Amino acid sequence: MMKVLVYGSGGRDHCLADKYGDSQHVDKVYFAPGNPGVLYTLKGRRGLIERVPTKDFKEIGDFCVEKEVDLVDVGSETPLGEGLIDVLNKRGIRTIGPKKEYVQLESDRAFTDDLLKKIGVPKPEYRVFDDPEAAKAYVRNIGYQVVVKANGLAAGKGAIVCEGVSDAETAINKIMVKKTFGESGNRVVIEERKYGTEISFFVYLDGIHAMPLRTFAHDYKPAFDPDDTEAIKKFGGNLNTGGTGCYCPHRDVSPWLVNRIIKEIVNPTVNAIYNDLGWAYKGVIYFGLNLDPYDQLDVFEINVRHGDPEWEVIARKLSTDLFEIGMAVWDGTLDTINQVWNKQHYVDVIAMEGRSKASKGWNKGYPGRYGKGHRINGLDKIEKGVMVYFAGVDDDPENGLFTYGGRVLHVIAGASTLEDAREKAYRNIDLISFEDHKNNGANCLRYRKTIGL
User: Fold this and answer.
1) For 40-54, 160-174, 283-297, 435-449, which range has the lowest pLDDT when averaged over its residues?
2) Number of H helices and number of E strands within the chain?
3) Is the pTM value of this prediction over 0.70?
């Protein structure tokens, strides 16, 4: 029996740990630094998933050697960008995830956009700027709507969708002048705004082969439902977040469209990675795509890991043993893996911190300033078969779990139809509350109501 370590602490990472725990080959999953929510799950209580509360790369390496860990899966972009894979590989530890050099596919948008343009992969028109005044002059003159993107890593929040010139200038100031995303905002990519359907498409690479996952998900990035006009006005627009919910399979999934994506986007990109760049990339690549009303496909982002919340629903639908996929990534044998998918539909609704009482005044809630320390109630009422993956949580020996982030937890339900999966997910998230101790115990949990519509 095998041991796996998942490095990360969010909902995607908890989902990875849970999925490895389902493998017939695995009898122990370590979760580092993890989050305490896993201890409130069945696998956590049984000891199948064990939290290892350390972030230190050397300590992680020492731990893996001591415990004879067979595989490490690094779920998040930050430790990948800091070189965790390189550290572990030097010690002979098997890993899933790109080396530090390869993370520039996500951490340098201009590099990736230029690569895609060179090889003819379709993407929106774009320009790159180092000077905020030059960027503002550009958006004043082009005449069409844009998306302003921080060039570097920004925890999935670095793209600002703009309605007009004023919005674009505000976004440029936010990223380049106010440095909301730190050094990632030294440069911006200004990209033509596209309209259509968002598609999240994932591919495993083993350094030789590519294995596109033959289904895909629909992620919802705006913070609020379109008709939540009061909240949108208070926040100064419907801000993009790291994701507020997701469903799978996407309504547009078909063998025809999957084949198109592989032919037009995946294959030329993977060929460039392996042959033009010469990278022995072992891990996951995420393609954020737009399908417009005229069936034009465009790439609007590439990430070097699973999406969050997309992975939470795709993992539930995937019936192939994840440990077998992981070992094939390391061994270079992805061509031997047979993809198996169940027939269910899955919906993930994310419970976020909403408006809550502060020491002085009020917290607006995620994605603005949000409160912490609100006790999480109702988890014991969740129906059997409905998964809860934890993200922004902490715990207290006396009071149990409490909120410690803006996106707190994921509620994932499956059913034979999308409509039934939606109904089940919403029925269960309504059983959970975040207790606002400064406001007479009022429920300060917030969620979008239109996921899957």
Assistant:
1) 160-174
2) 15, 26
3) yes
pLDDT of residue 200: 94
Cα 353 from chain centroid (whole Å): 18
Tokens encoding 254 = 């078909």
DSSP of 256-296: HHHHHHIIIIIHHHHHIIIIIS----EEEEEEEEEE-TT--
Token pair in block for residue 298: 């465009």
Per-residue pLDDT reduced to its tens digit, 304-348: 999 999 999 999 999 999 999 999 999 999 999 999 999 999 999
Q: For 395, phi and psi rounded to 5 degrees?
A: -140, 165
Rounded to whole angstroms, the Cα distance separating 17 from 15 reads 5
Q: Which architecture, in CATH terms, is 195-216+253-336?
A: 2-Layer Sandwich (3.30)
SS3 398: coil
Please give the Cα distance from 365 to 355 (Å, whole number).
5
Q: Do the Cβ atoms of 429 and 447 come closer than 8 Å? A: yes
pLDDT in tens, 188-210: 999 999 899 989 999 999 999 99
Q: How many residues does the chain have?
A: 453
Pairing between β-strand 26-33 and β-strand 49-51 as defined by DSSP bridges: parallel
Closest CA to 364 of 275, 232, 272: 232
Rounded Cα gap, residues 148 and 168, in angstroms? 7
Alpha-carbon distances, residue 348 vs 427, 441, 451 (angstroms): 12, 26, 8
Give the containing element (helix H, strand E) for 71: strand 71-74
Alpha helices in 22-83 (DSSP H): 42-46, 57-67, 77-81
The residue written with tokens 């993930």 in the block is 348
**Computed from CA positions of residues 269, 271, 275, 280, in that sequence, does the dihedral angle turn out positive or negative?**
positive
Name the nearest CA neighbour of 136 among 188, 193, 68, 81.
188
Domain borders along the chain are: 2-97, 125-192, 195-216+253-336, 217-249+343-453
Q: What is the CATH number of domain 125-192?
A: 3.30.1490.20
- Per-residue confidence (pLDDT) for residue 155, from 0 to 100: 67
pLDDT of res. 238? 82
